[in-house]
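Hello Y.,

Per our agreement to keep a running log of every chain we model this quarter, I'm adding this entry. I've kept the format consistent with earlier entries: sequence first, then predicted structure.
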Amino acid sequence: MMARAYGEIGVAAAGSRGHGVVRRAVARMNHVRERSMPRYVNGYQLSLDDASLATFGFDRETHERAAFSSPL
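Predicted structure for the entry above:
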């Protein structure tokens, strides 16, 4: 919900400019954290063994491809 206040390049939309600097800063931090969360989840899932990944319906090759192709 907070990420909607930002466009593609992370600039606050015209309608949210009146909310204050602190609110925009917190919204920006949340936006950045939401974008980086899949990296942490993928890293944890790669630490699991193949049997555990198969239990959850994943395979190691898919996660390894995602880990190397995800932007920083």
